[in-house]
Amino acid sequence: MAYDCASIVRQFTVPGAFRSAAPYGTGHINDTYCVECVAAGRLVRYILQRVNHRIFAAPDRLMQNIVRVTGHVRAKLATASPANIERGTLTVVPARDGKAYHRDEAGNWWRVYVFIEGARTYDVVQNRSQAFAAARAFGAFQAMLSDFPAATLHETIPAFHHTPSRLARLKEAIGADAHNRAAGAGAEIAFVLAREEMTTRLTTLAGRGELCVRVTHNDTKINNVMIDDATGDGVCVIDLDTVMPGLSLYDFGDCVRTTTALAAEDERDLARVGMSLDLFAALADGYLSSARALLSPLEADLLPFSGMLITLEIGIRFLTDYLEGDVYFKTHRPGQNLDRARTQFAMVASMERQMAQMEMIVARLR
């Protein structure tokens, strides 16, 4: 759908004259545009986004989270690294009515960020230096928010990383078998059910107070970190829509799942699927370099397990969606969600085979 970006941008306190807008990035949830404006003879760029309110049911609460979290990070940067304050966190441009968003006549929700120049995102990690930089940035993000009252944030997607809830929904989908697909996914269903004990391990520890609930990002793909063009350092953590209370292990685990994969997420040749131990080592090194003081000994011990758990969880979600008729994840061919589930489970198996080495890496880095 085409939008009148010029008129939408005019609803925000963006100085200067609108010049152009073009689709930007590779995100699948929100509609994103790079906007160019001219102010005092200088070209200035912004990011304009339409928030997908079908996925995020309360965009006003989502934006409240983002404003509070970025404000907290900005205050930390002002003290510790003032030279990085404009690039170290997202800058929300308010609407003309003072809100952090604008809602148009069609009911769409819009926001504007200042464009971070001299840095970019990568959809696929290119080397271990990038893996280190991304994990270090996510660890630093958690560390700067370690004194933020996590319980005061809204849950933008309830039970997002609550693995037992994900498993319960899978069991419901198996029982209903609304699309007669369960018989063709018998091996995948059996794989999950054989690992049911894994799904409750972190929630049980959190319920007993042995794991601390923190402010977490919850979508720690490498393309959610801006990498500096000149230095290769992680400059800014972006895509804060799922920032909410959670476990630090969820963030590290999802970083492992998405960064160490040796094949595409829907790879059909499972012989090509696995986890790169070298990239895992780079992630652990980067994350611990910035978050070591934040983590308890138990959290550090569970870093290798967290990657395996979150990989199993996303596999459960793909399998559930397949059984429910592909209603959540976008698909481009029949059976794609089942293929996605199979790759995740092959990744889990790869991690199981390498778990002892992963634990040795973390022990050495600690």
Q: What's this, in brief?
A:
The protein is of the alpha+beta class.
Kindly describe this structure.
This protein has 366 residues and is α+β, with helices and mostly antiparallel strands. It folds into two domains: 5-58 and 92-117, Phosphorylase Kinase, domain 1 (2-Layer Sandwich), CATH 3.30.200.20; 128-365, Aminoglycoside 3'-phosphotransferase, Chain: A, domain 2 (Alpha-Beta Complex). It is built from twelve helices and eleven strands. It has helices at residues 5-9, 59-80, 128-144, 163-176, 186-193, 196-199, 201-207, 248-259, 277-291, 297-301, 303-324, 336-365, and strands at 17-23, 31-39, 42-51, 92-93, 102-103, 109-114, 119-120, 213-216, 225-228, 234-237, 244-247. Strands 1, 2, 3, 4, 5 and 6 form a six-stranded antiparallel sheet that branches. Helix 4 (163-176) packs parallel to helix 11, helix 8 runs antiparallel to helix 9 and helix 11 (303-324) packs antiparallel against helix 12. It is globular, with a radius of gyration of 21 Å. The N and C termini lie far apart (50 Å). 42% of the residues are buried.
